[in-house]
Every structure is written in C-alpha cells, then in structure tokens.
Amino acid sequence: MMKIGMVGVGAISGIYLENLTQVFKEVEIIAVCDLIREKAEKAQKEYNIPKIYDTMYELFADDEIDIVLNLTRPYEHFEVTSEALKAGKHVYSEKPLAATLEEGLELVRLAQEKNLMLGGAPDTFLGAGIQTCRKLIDDGFIGKPVGAMASMICHGHESWHPDPEFYYKHGGGPMMDMGPYYLTALINLLGGIKSVTGVARTSFDQRIITSQPNAGTIIDVEVPTHVTGILEFENGAIGTLLTTFDVYNKGQARFEVYGSEGTLIVPDPNTFDGPIYLLRKEESEFKEIPLLFDYANNSRGLGLADMAKAIETGRSFRANHNQTLHVLEAMVAFKTSSDKRAAVDLQSRFKRENPMKPNPMTGIISQ
Fold first, then answer.
1. Would residue 313 count as lying in a domain?
2. How do residues 315-333 score in pLDDT, each as one tens digit?
C-alpha cells in the first residue's frame, strides 16, 4: 500500500480524492495540504484523511509518505515538485510537468539524480477509449499510419470557471492547458514527435470574467490563446493540432487518425471512454467499435495507481517523465516555432510503454 501526500486542494482534487479513496486499492491518501486550510479540512472530513499540514515542507518531511501528488497550478508545479524530489519523494504531478521546458529538464535531472520516479497527468490515455484505439492501430486495422488531425475549440474558461485567471497567465493558455491531453494521446497512438511547426497568437489582450465569484474582473492575457501547427512524427506520419480559447463552437473536440487502410475517429482525449468509430477502405461508412479495456469512467488517479504498482514491482510506469517531458517540449515548440517562423526539432525522444492489461479486479493494476 503506497501512501500519498496531496499538495493542492483545488477544483481537480475532488475526482482524485474520490478515486484514490474508493476505486484504487493499492494506494492510500494519508495527508493533504493547501494554502487555504479550510479546503484541506473539508477534504479531510469528506474523505477521512488522517493528516493535514499547513505547509508543503511539513508534508514532505513525513516519513510515511511515499508519493507526493502535486495538484497545484501550472506555474507552481516546478517549485512543489522540485522540493518534493529534494525531500526524497516520488512525484506525480497534474499537467503540465512544468511551465517551461527549462524547468521540466531540471525536474527530470533531479529525479534521475535522486533515483526517484517522476511523471504525471494526463492519464486519460490509460483509459478504455485511447487504449482501444491503440490496439486497433497496433493490430493494423487502419494499415500504416499516414497522419492525424486533432482540435480543441472553445472560447475560454471565464464564463464558467470559479477562478479562471490563471488560464491566461504564465503556464496557461489552451496549448499548456489542453494540449497535454491531445499530445499524450497522439504519441501513445503514433509514437514520438520529430519536429513541430507552429503559429501562435493572442487574439484578445483582455478577458472579462462573467462567472461567480469574480464576475466583472478584467484579466490581462499573457499567453497565446490560439495555437495551431504541424507535427512530424518519427514514424513519418504528419499531424495537425489546433488548441484555442478564441473560437465559438458547439463541439469542443475532434480527433482523427488516418492510415493506408482506413480512418479512426478517436474519442475526446480529456475523457476515459468512447465513442470510437472505424472506417475501413472496403466499407462505405463508419462503424462504432466497442471498448476493449477497463476504466471507461472518469478514472483520474489511474496513472498514480500505475506509478505505485511500478514502485512496488520495480518496473517503469506508463505516465513517466519521458512522456511528460516530451509533451512539454512539443507544446513549447509551437510558440518557439511561431516566434522563429521555422520548424523546431525536438531533442527528447519518446518510446511508448506497454499497453494496459485487463484485470478482473477493478482498482488493482496489472503488472
């Protein structure tokens, strides 16, 4: 039983707390910490967590804790993760790995120096939807992969999120916020990325919050909010990716993978389930494909449970830092390419980990 200390009790923490206390049976949250103590107290009461700490340093000093779960805001990821690693803790972080590539590289260096596991979200690629798509592609149902097209389209978070400002500050924006879902799914379906050619713009210099409790607050936008470009994969496939907070559209996600023998419509990579549709060259229309793997519900925490199993057994884990660093480098490359008006070759290399293995006991991760 791996023991978890959670830093940050924000909006995303609820589903982690629910799954890590009720679904995944090989981990136990024993401590929480938040700058607003009332949030930690609420989590403790609702989920029967033994300990509350006022500072992350107090939590890191707890010898019982094996893994730190970093649920802070993106621009805080580096400080929290680096201090946890220095304290000898394995770290699983919400996306992205860090707010800059330099920070991400330093975190990986620290983890390797300390011989600690580091990685993190998103873990939606481990769910039934993307894992089924991976099997279809790996088993040749669309033939040789030729390309992919993915888009995340919305008009930002200020109309519904209770505290949306950080989405428009350092470490935010549609690529850093939602890009991890799409890029993580893409590299698990098609393999590593060789180069990125991107264009990035800030369409609106200011945003007005219309959601409560901060309605009327004006946000100065510091990051690109419309980012698009081309991905060249190591296997020769070519992908296009669009992420935007500037467009009105009823359908947020679109994701297709093209092959020499057919086309696969991939589900929203921000979810764990389907639907999945396959068009083979000999067919005249798409057919829905049943899910072939476990974890079709919102299973956030699955990647952390896999990390715990990896620590216990000595194997690598699927949402590791090789993946989160590769995704971070690709995201940063969109703006770098836009600024330079040239393609950017990625320095990191990514090799897919083994696919998930079904287990009749939900919440117990197979080796």
1. no
2. 999 999 999 999 999 999 9
